[in-house]
Amino acid sequence: MAEAVRVPRGQARFAGGALAAFALVTVAAALAAWHKYRLLAEPLTPGPYVDNPLVEVDTYFRNLMGWRTGLLLVALLQFSIWLATMRDVADVLWRQGQRRRRAWLVFGWVIPVAQLFVPKMFVNDLWAASRPESQRRRGHPLLTVWWLSVLAAANAYTFGDASKDLKRAVTTTQARDALRQIMFSDGLCICAAVLSIVVVRELLQRLEHAAATAPAEAWDPQARP
Fewer CB within 10 Å, N side or C side of the chain? Predict the structure, then answer.
């Protein structure tokens, strides 16, 4: 029976690790953007290309932004896989409380309008499944703050034109304005990633506790309706 009720921790570690890596690279990209921002405030001095500090920091900045984009995709994938893994446990604890089919774990991230609420619905359902039957309630202030941070970061990252503005900038003023927007977006992404790690950890612990205290018949396939 212990094997039957065990909640997989490995996928939570993968999801948390991917989110942490994304946050760290985003911090590094923000620091590079800040360094570039400060260099642009100083008078430009001619010099060899290889010894130009602005060229050097720009190279680091562009490489970090590329890694940031790649790690974002990895983090989203790992988070979705983690949701699917936790859904297996929630299906047993409170099958009728899971409101969306598994396909929405993918479509919920990419379909317009559905992006605004479907992923949060999955997390709300997992949270409710982790509570005792008499206290089941969807939603929590932590989940609300987390989802608002995710939406804010996604809006800044997807709809902001700061990266394009930086490429098109022809004056230092334009470049600095674009860098300020990028640093603001990075700050939102870091907050969203950190809160996502907190949510993963909290839900893992809650579902582990719920699985450990669930009645034995809940884990008996022949006893399910």
Answer: C
